């Protein structure tokens, strides 16, 4: 009798477990599809933010276009890490960093649905990707000398960075998650904007539930500076904790706060419109790029003495005695600048802040502090400066206080200044107004 009861209990438990497994496998709706992406490891933090915008706008198109037949596309956020040159810091783990460390996911979701990579794994039940497209240029270049949009599956130009293991699984970096693999792989030569991917993805070339586009930087914006560009950019609200740290620093060291500076932002970015110009705190700010720019763009990079001279003049012009500096310069360079600019202030993270928010978080705090200044000067062709200019446009600063740079020593004082990419609120036509 005891054996019969035991067998009955065992069968019941097994049946219950099978039901649970079946429920787990069926909890993902049949029309739900996932788009993942990555960039060349050499790309820096701020360019990767720009690539996110290209991919996010692709997801927006995939969700809205008729040929996609109502598929529920979700953007899976690639964990941050392996930005070797830009994030050099000994004894600091900087891989598999979730997006929530830097950005407010609720705000991102107001533009297109997004999810962290680990949530994706949990939702589908395994660390796998159905298909991986490795984006590359055309080996032959522009054969006609005329730009045309095109996309073709081609042989890989460079040696693939992915390998097939003994089980037929495609293995690679995958943001540091060793268990992750792809089921299919191909190289795709592309030359064009993100909307060009809609037809191939929506049944033309794949029916994969999950698709990854590696080397996403090879995809261009649909309409750079257009409404969708700016809506997506506005949705990239920084994490509340990083904003809090920056605001506390502003208050303590820069006598700055949102109410007096006219930079109060609504909780939902969609509710924000410009109601007069932002004033900014009683300080000016500059992004002083050094390191590789000293040789890669040496004709545009001013000396430390030139930086001090120009900023001293601007401090007098704006009647302030403080200047905030964001820089990747050496300790000696910053000490020299400090000796020439007594009112110079920099953000120095505590050990705990560095461990919690990594170098990416420090960069964002620097950008927040620069973006709230009464007047800002950036570095030519620096994506770090571009992101600050965008933040200032979103907060409605006068353009003459935002789009500026310090001229090199041997250049005229009226050297070429940054292009003024103004914010667009309602339609692409505003670009040319």
TrEMBL record:
Instruction: Give the enzyme class.
Output: transferase
Instruction: Choose any GO biological process term that the UniProt entry carries and state it.
Output: fucose metabolic process
Q: Name one GO cellular component term.
A: Golgi apparatus
Catalysis: reaction(s): L-seryl-[protein] + GDP-beta-L-fucose = 3-O-(alpha-L-fucosyl)-L-seryl-[protein] + GDP + H(+); L-threonyl-[protein] + GDP-beta-L-fucose = 3-O-(alpha-L-fucosyl)-L-threonyl-[protein] + GDP + H(+)
Q: Which GO terms describe its molecular function?
A: peptide-O-fucosyltransferase activity
UniProt keyword annotations, A-Z: Carbohydrate metabolism, Disulfide bond, Endoplasmic reticulum, Fucose metabolism, Glycoprotein, Glycosyltransferase, Golgi apparatus, Signal, Transferase
Pathway given for this chain reads: Protein modification; protein glycosylation
**Which EC number(s) does UniProt give?**
2.4.1.221
Q: Tell me the leader sequence span.
A: 1-21
In the UniProt record, does the keyword Signal occur? yes
Superkingdom of origin organism? Eukaryota
Q: Where in the cell is it found?
A: Endoplasmic reticulum; Golgi apparatus
Primary location class: endoplasmic reticulum
Q: Which CDD domains match?
A: O-FucT-2
| Similarity annotation | Belongs to the glycosyltransferase 68 family.
Q: Which function does this protein serve?
A: Catalyzes the reaction that attaches fucose through an O-glycosidic linkage to a conserved serine or threonine residue in the consensus sequence C1-X-X-S/T-C2 of thrombospondin type I repeats (TSRs) where C1 and C2 are the first and second cysteines of the repeat, respectively. O-fucosylates members of several protein families including the ADAMTS, the thrombospondin (TSP) and spondin families. Required for the proper secretion of ADAMTS family members such as ADAMTSL1 and ADAMTS13.
This one is known as GDP-fucose protein O-fucosyltransferase 2
Which species is the source of this protein? Ciona savignyi (Pacific transparent sea squirt)
By which gene is this protein encoded? Answer: pofut2
